[in-house]
Amino acid sequence: MVSTPLPYRPHNHAACVEQALADARRICTDASARLTPTRERVLELIWQSHKPLGAYDLLAALTLDGHNAAPPTVYRALDFLQQHGLVHRIASLNAFTGCTHAGDHHTGFFLICRQCHNVLELASPDLDGAVEQAAQAQKFAVEKSTIEIAGLCPACQSGTPPEGTHCHE
Amino acid sequence: MVSTPLPYRPHNHAACVEQALADARRICTDASARLTPTRERVLELIWQSHKPLGAYDLLAALTLDGHNAAPPTVYRALDFLQQHGLVHRIASLNAFTGCTHAGDHHTGFFLICRQCHNVLELASPDLDGAVEQAAQAQKFAVEKSTIEIAGLCPACQSGTPPEGTHCHE
DNA sequence: ATTAGCGATGTTATAATGTTTCACTAATTT
DNA sequence: AAATTAGTGAAACATTATAACATCGCTAAT
Ligand SMILES: [Zn+2]
Ligand SMILES: [Zn+2]
Ligand SMILES: [Zn+2]
Ligand SMILES: [Zn+2]
Questions:
Q1: With contact defined as beta carbons under 8 Å apart, do A40 and A21 qualify?
Q2: Chain B residues with CB inside 8 Å of A91's CB?
Q3: What kind of fold does domain B13-157 have according to CATH?
Q4: pTM of the entire structure?
Q5: Smallest CA–C1' separation from B91: which nucleotide?
Q6: Cβ of B133 and A144 within 8 Å?
Q7: Among A127, A121, A18, A139, which Cα is nearest to B126's?
Q8: What is the pLDDT of residues A111-158, one digit of tens each?
Q9: Tens digits of per-residue pLDDT, A27-67?
Q10: Do B130 and A124 touch (CB under 8 A)?
């Protein structure tokens, strides 16, 4: 299992990506799902960025690969990756990010820096519990939680946004 | 102040809408903000539906009014209404709903029925606290919370989805 | 080997959502 | 009244996502 990434701190990103891909291969094998070249490449691109990528960012990257891809190519790959818990869609950004808890059943939530655009995925039983409790009070049956917290990451609060390529600049 | 709406139960909807509009007028007056006819009409349309409406749903409704509106007309009105806490955008639906706590400073969250598309806005200090605590543990400064819970409302769980017009049907 | 089935992909077109820009008008301030 | 500001109209454009249908490649039964 990939360790929780630390997008706010330096790390060996190539190894980080490779670990995520290795995990994905295993997860798909276990599920008898086919992590085809296109799907794997999309996942790799998402992990390489470590910041949420839009579908058309991915499309452009595939085009650079020489892959003559159209929007459905990307959206299909993203659907597959989401269904197998390998990526999450960030609704407030219309973008996709690698799941850092792939394989676990989990309800993630996201801390999204509005300045450097880094995203940190966390899981909090307390938060899940608070959601479930509030829902139960209304007799509402929870199926899917979308919890996206926008603000400033520690680095950006201190005026030193993390260096590195930002894919939407 | 408008009482908490009960979208899952019958109510005098015309009075509900009128109350929301009266509240909005007062809030805007207090803030020296201009609730112009277009803005007020958009707010009225949103409240009349009592289910989230997309920007282009609103645009179509304005067109039916005889208002020769273009997309920016709607988005500008929505921006104004959001800035004054009169409507919320539901990111997971690309749609807008009337704020049931207008005037309060609050961090709302939403229970969204995937079947009847009713939305219930709630505020939960426990939930807010869990979010703030999880963020603080990462030294993340929260600015805006997007918490949208999808599932089934009580009526739809029991197989009797609330009657009434559904605007996206 | 043949062929029907099926998942995945290619391809084109289109739908749905959201923004930029500039010219113009109405309201407010001085 | 003049200057300033806020709001609107209108056209074009940009971005995000899906529909529809053809095709390819593998597999499994015939
Ligand atoms: Zn995850
Ligand atoms: Zn940051
Ligand atoms: Zn609200
Ligand atoms: Zn329902």
A1: yes
A2: 91-92, 146, 148
A3: Arc Repressor Mutant, subunit A (1.10.10)
A4: 0.90
A5: C17
A6: no
A7: A127
A8: 999 999 999 999 999 999 999 999 999 999 999 999 999 999 999 999
A9: 999 999 999 999 999 999 999 997 999 999 999 999 999 99
A10: yes
